[in-house]
Amino acid sequence: MIRLARGGLIDRSRKIAFRFDGKAFEGFAGDTLASALLAGGETLLGRSFKYHRPRGIFSAGADEPNALVELRRGARREPNTRATTTELFEGLEAQSQNRFPSLSFDLLSVNNLLSPFLPAGFYYKSFMWPASWWEKIYEPAIRRAAGLGRASGVPDPDTYEKSHAFCDILVAGAGPAGLMAALTAARSGARVILCDEDFAFGGRLLSERFTIAGQAGADWARAAEEELRGYLNVTLLPRTSLVSVYDGNSYAALERVSDHLAVPPLHQPRQRLWKIVAKRAVIAAGAHERLIAFGGNDRPGVMQASAIRTYVNRFGVSPGTCVGIFTTTDNGWRSAADLVAAGVRLAAVIDPRGHVSPGLVAEAEQAGARIFLGAEVVGTYGGKRLSGVEVSTDGVNSIAVKCDVLGVSGGFNPALGLCSHLGHRPQWSENIFAFVPDRLPPGLDVAGAARGIFPLGACMADGARAGFEAARAVGRNGDIFLPAVSDDSSGQKPLWRTRRVRGKAFVDLQNDVTDRDLVVAVREGFGNAEHLKRYTTLGMATDQGKTGALTGQAIAASLSGQPLAALSPPIARPPAVPVAIGAYAGLHRGRDFRPTRLTASHAWASENGASFVEAGQWLRAQWFARPGEKDWLEIVSREAAHVRAAVGLCDVSTLGKIDIQGPDAGAFLDRIYINTFSTLPVGKARYGVMLREDGFVMDDGTTSRLAQDHYFLTTTTANAAKVMQHLEFCHQILWPELDVQMISVTEQWAQYAVAGPRARQVLEKVIDPGFDISNTGFAFLAAANLTIAGGVAARLLRISFSGELAYELAVPARYGDAVIRLLMRAGAEFGIAPYGTEALSVLRIEKGHAAGNELNGQTTARDLGLGRMMSTKKDYIGRVLAGRPALSDPGRPALTGFIPLDRKKRLRAGALFIIPGVEAIPAQVQGHMTSVCFSPALGHWIGLGLLARGPARLGERLRAYDPLRGEDVMVEVAAPVFVDPEGARLHV
Amino acid sequence: MSDLRPQPAISGMTPVSAAQPGVHVRLIEPGMVSVLARKAKTPELIAKAKADFGLALADAPVQSRAGTVAALGLGPGRWLFLGASPERLAPYFTGLASLSDHSDGYAVFEISGPEARRALAKGVPLDLEMFQDGDAAVTSVAHIGAILWKSSPERFAIAVFCSYAASFWHWLQASAAQFGLDVENAP
Fold it and tell me: What value of ipTM does the predicted structure carry?
């Protein structure tokens, strides 16, 4: 809680002001929020998840379980941010979380007193009845009481982006092993990316007092970074965590581009998610110091012994005035020595081991510390801050030792999460009493402490080895240069839980899991690591149990009498550290969630009052409102009626268009469609239906023949890509012997339907002289290449979806805008009016044409009344399976028309057909309504539907029952073609 | 001659100002024709292209160039000719290939500048550093299908279906903004 007079890698000339819970603090450039708060004397940072116990800072890195804060304010508020990894910036504001009304006086800490009644599995067991209460009452209440931070609830004002990178060798972690790996690889000339989650490279070298090549470790790290920066073949990514390992040598990394700034600079993202493809990767992620389960091991002031070294050596902060160390490792003694060197009072060192290297002990003894060998800390004293510890040498008697900070070292767990993302489990090591890598994904290597190699010299040598081997694997010759390193020892003997425990002994500080929860879990048969995690929440949430999960698993193993070597750790899944959803979304938010496709007439339609509707990625004009029109129904009815009375204009460019060419084009289409196209004359169009292999209808559309070896196939908008894929598959896999070529030309052509009795008059004004489009010269289903407006190439098809005299005019897309304006000008004297997709739908329902609602993947050609198109003279995709008894059963629901008996009633798509007088139960449903509209031609609602034996039931009366909307309308079964059933209007 | 005015696939490309823009973009409108070899005609087609256009067509994802005409290999026996029209090619390739006009189907952006690669990396899932002059790929950029090729030692060309032009531009503008974006021929 004091800033040391000197030392540390902070810039004491640059002061940074910040606030925590409204109180003003000051830190230095190079501080984290945690180090600056410690320097400011703040030791209480949060309340625990379940019991609301006071918590302080436990670590100095990403493994922090306790010190989670809400960072920033307003829309930028970011919950569950680790104070230990938050780089201090001017004006930073943080709030403690999970407390009410305040951090020091938290009403919900009553949970702590209730804790005997809140064992593991408590919620599952207690809130089971009544089941319906879970969602509405229990869960919201529990979430309120046991939660972490609050999201801002408003849109994030910052941007996030993604980026791709490629390299020969990716090194994750810039500690001693990672730097050696990167240096060795970089010097070989390989393309190297080195990333580290910290803002400074060096890892443990920044926290310790070792010398490398005659200089301080931190200075060596800085020199190594400078050397790497000088290589053109090296990319350095600080503030970047490798978060996921994927197949194909690809990795995800999160770069915190602007997290260390109050607000991202103009045009800079807040964070950037990298996809990195690396031929080889070296994971040098280090190790996490684990806790020991002893009574009161969560009290503010109890922290990792290695974190104390970090605060003292890197940040120039002593976390306390009088420090005790409880260690089972040599490393803990080094923390003690560092405190002594920094002039901090060392109260005691407690080591359960009976024998410790005399050199380590002598240093502590000289500083006046009390030494307890073969002893344990069994409990702690204090309220919101540690005041002392209870030490027992025999497990029975104990003495009190005063201290305001206790450093704990229970051993080190290699950071292996990334190694198991592809399903590879690590193996137990009896050397370090932790898991080390076993089998690894292809192309991935692990080096240094992450591989369980802890002494500094060996760790650096292993990094060099990994860099060398990776370079060789990518065809580079490297050399290994190892600098001289000061001595380091890594003796340890694990202690998972003290023999005696006074108070609560936590194994997961973030989730408030105690040793007693483990007893319950094992007793109830949930001792396996995967079960233990789900049952007790051991190892869940933001820290993923980096400091305590293994301790918990080891205790559970001993409770169930299992040897540690039989431990199987849970497989870690990506991401290795929390990643904001925004980073995964990148730029694809809101309107940019997916790309939007616009037709050539989009600008014109916008100018003319169009409302747009999404059709897949396309935006299509849904209708064109005129002043005074009160609702969509009025607009759409006017548009549809106008087509039947005069002439309308509709953009149909979104339909899929495919050029099919080659000598076998006709034969190919014969195999694709149920009907025949090889006999189609040049200059003619034909409606076609294609089936899937299983006999159901896949798509329909009009295909025309422009030349002997050239067909122009159209698909529905929705199925354009699927049909293209189907055709390619059929050609490449099924019939490669056919000489046919195909390519999508959807985008080449802007295509407009000109429909209505006056359509020809409009077109005659734009088509160049010499082309005859009269009824005799260009009859229904004619197709031709021609020119318009003085030489612009065009395709004209006399096809009709509306049932009126109609043409579709296709022009090169860059003329799409000009041509729709031209058609509107040319059609003005004939009253031309644009219509949108809704009127298009009304017109087709009036004509009984099947569309998406009927082509639903469950209908056959016969169901749609198209059975007579199914050729019996040739084979085609789906023919055999369409002949299955169930698919040719005459009792199948088939396309039928419906009219409300009371002509004023509205019909609803989705309504179920029930015979009057019969109970409305699923077994009695005769079919359902698929499409409805108000028919301006008939003056009442009409519907299309699929009704069992429908075509044979004309005139029958049925209930159209819609339980969803609570409507029940009597309808009469009718033929599906409501307007001009003879088709006379097509031929005028 | 028609008095209809053709429109580019996108209008309103606004630059992002910077003292020294790191990324430059321009729209180009080459005539584009797909040339799909008929069955077993690839060798003959390649020979014909060499003889008639001096074009060394490669059955590979690269751009071949001869004068004002270039061809991109899109797949086995499939090319996209640039600087061409079906009318011009038809006399040479009749019986050897099926031709379709795509001059209006694509919006083609040419991107250059010292930061072009870093900007493109935000959506292009390819190792552009390894792209040699003329290398081509059919890929996707920010979820938009694209043909990308190195049209010159300094430039990347990206063709997207013209209906995607506005969405693509929006992505490019956002991705290049931090470097400054200069629009050379704003339509």
Answer: 0.97
